[in-house]
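#structure-requests
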Amino acid sequence: MEQRTMIYRIRHLTEYRYQQPVSLCYNLAHLQPRNTPYQSCVSSKLHIDPMPSYSRKRKDYFGNNMLHFSIEVPHRKLAIEVISDIRIDEARTSPELNLDLGNTCAQALEALHDSQNRATLDAREFVLESPMVKMIPQLREYAEASFLPDRPLLSAARDLTQRIFSDFTYDPHFTTVATPLSDVLEHRRGVCQDFAHLAIGCLRALGYPARYVSGYLETLPPPGKEKLVGSDASHAWFAVYSPDEGWFEFDPTNNNMPAHQHITTAWGRDYSDVAPLRGVIFDGGKSQAPKVAVDVERLDKP
């Protein structure tokens, strides 16, 4: 039988260069991939320059790998490099899922309301509003066409994924991290983060638990061309919960269900829970955007 397990090496480099020396910085990073039912982190090495004065790894509320660190010496440059080897299991590389089976939309809502199952109870918090996914009437209006009561929930989520892909234009110059969903809906433009937030908002507006998933997407060069170093990218998609069936992931940016080319780093309510790097600096001059390079290399081909 053909071996479908994939091994990937992910290199994620983030660099900040400052106009003036930074005297002190405190940072929080979600950069080391987590284990999931479909993937396991074989190894993950993290290098920070300058060397932190303090660092501590722990699991956050959602079970993601999180690092706190501070640098307490003056510096004009900050570089964080993470190299992780990830194994993607066969079940992820060849998903066999009939989206016309399972809970209907009505059945899912009923079970979410009545079930005392621990997994379902835990999932309910993902129906609530979160910092970057505010409940506005337009979300429900956009979602309702997909989620008919007798339609299977997963089929409806797949339809929503298809509609976002068709109705919205990928435009990396239109939005920022802080762009509200109302602007994304009005102008029908955004990036993967925006499309994931949009789908999550639509689902929550109708009462279905949905969470934000951050990670990486392997990109392949055109035929006959070599892959450029740093050409891969951080990525985002969403997952919806169906009672007694579990979490199912969808990628509205690429109109598919994530498989072996999607590598998960972390998940939470929205981007604010799982931002790759955030922090506070003292001094440094005018704010500088980071330089980010990502490489996803396939080590073990089937």
